[in-house]
Amino acid sequence: xxxxxxxxxxxxxxxxxxxxxxxxxxxxxxxxxxxxxxxxxxxxxxxxxxxxxxxxxxxxxxxxxxxxxxxxxxxxxxxxxxxxxxxxxxxxxxxxxxxxxxxxxxxxxxxxxxxxxxxxxxxxxxxxxxxxxxxxx
Length: 137
Description:
Elements: H1 7-16, E1 20-24, H2 33-43, E2 47-51, E3 76-79, H3 83-95, E4 100-103, H4 110-118, E5 122-124, H5 129-136
Parallel strand pairs: 1-2, 1-3, 3-4, 4-5
Helix pairs in contact: 1-5, 3-4
């Protein structure tokens, strides 16, 4: 598979795209990767916005059931859902005006990548910001 997000793109998203990160799939389940990654994002100064059907408060931040429910702009949409659902989330991220979309490790949808980039939105896929921030941020 092609490298969907070179180091320059990853660095740009981490340093220049903004500090409000909607984390789709984030809940209070501390055993899930989304929870640990959200903690790392907070540690590096990012504001996390939990997006989950339960819309629960996570790590001190109020949650929303969908991206369209968030009443303020989000800069980056970090996607922790199954690849079969991720393309729809990427389309929603473009629709709400996100500057970047980040598909987590194991989340791959090449068509969504092409659509998102064609809309002028930065995107990386199959990478983890908790790994990349210490390395490139």
